[in-house]
Amino acid sequence: MDKRNRNETQSMSGKKKSRGTSRNKFTKKMQKKLVVLFGLVLLAFAGLSARLIIINRENGEKYKKQVLSQQQYSSTTIPYKRGEILDSKGTKLAVSEKVYDLVLDCKQMNTTVSNKQPYIEPTIEALGEYFGVDTAKVRAYAQENPNSQYYVLKKRMTYDEISEYQKMMADDKQKEKSQYIKGIWFEESYKRVYPNNSLASDVIGFTRTDGVGTYGLEEYYNDVLSGVNGRQFGYLDTDENLTRTTKAAVDGYNIYSTIDATIQGIVEKYLKQYNEENKNVAREGNGARDAACIIMEVNTGNVLAMASYPFFDLNDTRNTEPLIGSLLIDENGEVTDTVINQEIADSLNDEENATMLVQNLNALWKNYCINSTYEPGSVMKPFVAALGLESGKLTGNESFECTGVIEIGGYKIRCHNYRSGAEGWLTIGESIERSCNVALVRMAQVIGKDEFLKYMQAFNFGLRTNIDLAGEARTASLVFNENTMGPTELATSSFGQGFNVTMIQMITGFCALVNGGYYYEPHMVSKITASDGSVVENIEPRVLKQVISAETSAKVREYCEQVVYGEHGTGSRAIPPGYRIGGKTGTAETVSKNGTRDKDEYVVSFMGYAPADDPQIAIYVVLNRPNAADQDLETRKAAVLTKNILTEVLPYLNIFMTEPLTEEEAAELEAMQIEIRQQLIDSAPKTDVSGNDIEGTGDGGQEEGGNETPSENAGEGEAAGENGGASSGENAEEGQQGEENNPYVNEQGQVIDPVTGEVMGEDTEGYDTPVSGILGGNSSGSTTEPEEENAP
To answer: Can you list the positions of beta strands (E) in 215-361?
Structure first.
């Protein structure tokens, strides 16, 4: 019995084991299900990944902004530094100096510590002590706006204005005071500064408050001078982790102008002197409505100087003082007969005269040399001779009869000195020398309309020169074409009347007349560099075409010399002592408001080149409606202006004298040397201080080893130095190089020849070396001359 029970028990136990083994077995069916499930999970992950990639590609930026908007975020702009404008010798004409806005964070200042606000009063007191801020106003603002984080108290402060505060905050000895000052910080930016104030104001232009260039080089090269702002980003997420990213600012490029600050200063000095001597002479107002001058390198197209009077201060462009003496312009832009005096100048700043102020300032800021058009007058006559010779219509051996008056198309055209009688038969050279209108009319008739217009276009009359300055005037509609030129228009064009030009057109074409016929594109910038000094671009002289042959050019130079040295020449007053030059005078009637010829108002000019045998520079002086009873006789003033400028510029350019000096000329140069000597003495350092003891001038100052910047009075003739060196004003004010380092002064303080070492100005009959241009001194004192018998 027991045995049977035991067997049954064992049998039942075996069955249980069998059932358990069968229940725990991982069947193939189950494996298949698991694989399918795993595959589905993988597919889901693959689909999700693909979807994420698509979302990021199509809407990533959108969601990124949403996330960033939910974080605490701060961003600070890092301003770029606008590029500098320098002259050809490295003198700084426009620089950018760092300035600071004073900002108060009221929220930080109002921070509570142990139920107290310990920072408010110390911070407000510091604002009053170091920055002169109205503390009552700040206190009231902080109470009304306790959470304000950006309250600008002062703008455009210099480093000197904030340095005392910064020193105090950094001084450990004043920790007891500084630890309770909270919320004061400075926002950096740059301010445009023009070290020489009004020097080359027409050429340089200026920047608006937003840093964008207006007029001149500042506008034309705005994209080059401008950089790219940098930015510092800061993100504070919900876990209080701060992440900062900085993108550095990219500074603008520097541009090197072809302008020479010393030559520019000489030109501006004499234009100002002309105005002082001639204002209010025949009428109330300036010495001329406009007085302008351009000096250009004949064989490159480089502009060495360009100026038109009146000048204006680039650091104070809205100052109305320079308008005094000019004609008032009304709200509609029409020139009135009212001369601006001090009272009117002051009234322009009134709110009701805002439109009139803008009109008059725009007229002041314009560059007459490129913006204004006028009829050139007799300076056109050498062009007519050149195109006649080049076209083959003239051989150079012709003679033309001057009968005093010639009738063309029902109009009587007179020679300028017809009252003295007819000139008779004149060669081409004599016609140019005497500036005979009748002879030039006959010359134009031989040339014919087609050839005349062909060469007018070849010299780019009616076309812009594309000089790299903003605002060059268009003259396409102001010249004749084959449909508008008849016999009368051809006749008047021969002596520069009836069509309009700009000064830059005339001098660029004139350079081609005298340099062998090569027409260079005029330009104002020779080089562009990066902030580290590396050269980005060299702008080389560019010959656009050859308009006349070398033989024709030589003939024209011969005619221009006759104008200056001929027995009946009209340009003798332009001769600088010790030099031989060529040139041509010009007188043109103006057109009145009603379109009729004004017989009382003229544009007078002189255009010349030097030296006569190997032209290096050309000069063009224009006086628009000079202040004189007989304006048509004022060509002598334009010629004398030319003489005074060249007397200083030619020696400065190391162009040596080739002609013997008369006693009068020697005395004139002697007087100049006395003036230069006195300027050197006056400019010598007043204290025995070494230049090494003077601290640097900062961002806008002199770089080590560079050229010094002319003084702010460089426009009045104090900028000098043969290689663009320091002005006399700098020596006196900054204690840099004194007389002991001046090549023109010996140990005894005597003015010497820097080449030979000989003392100059003592019983000297002539000079064989440069003796002027050192400080831009006056060469002849006055531009007043006796009346000329035969004005062109």
So the answer is: 230-236, 242-247, 254-257, 288-297, 303-309, 327-329, 335-339
Q: Across the strands, what pairs with 191? A: 97
Mind listing the pLDDT tens digit for each residue in 722-745? Answer: 333 333 333 333 333 444 445 555
Rounded-to-integer distance, Cα 535 and Cα 527, Å:
7
Query: Which residues, 6+ apart, have CB-to-CB distance to 594 below 8 Å?
Result: none
Q: State pTM to two decimals.
A: 0.77
Instruction: Give the pLDDT confidence score for residue 70 in this predicted structure.
Output: 55
Q: Are 476 and 457 in contact (CB under 8 A)?
A: no
- 615 within 8 A of 514, measured Cβ to Cβ: yes
Q: How far is CA 574 from CA 312, 518, 641, 644, 646, in A?
A: 28, 25, 7, 8, 9
600 sits in which H/E element = strand 597-610
Asked if residue 17 has pLDDT above 60, the reply is no
660-707 pLDDT, tens digit per residue, is 988 888 888 888 777 767 766 765 655 443 333 333 333 433 333 334
First to last CA, the chain: 162
Distance between CA atoms of 703 and 125, rounded to whole angstroms?
39
Cα–Cα distance for residue pair 700/191, rounded to 1 Å: 11
Provide the pairing of β-strand 399-402 with 405-408: unpaired
570 in Cβ contact with 561 (< 8 Å): no
Q: For residue 651, what is the enclosing H or E element? A: helix 635-652
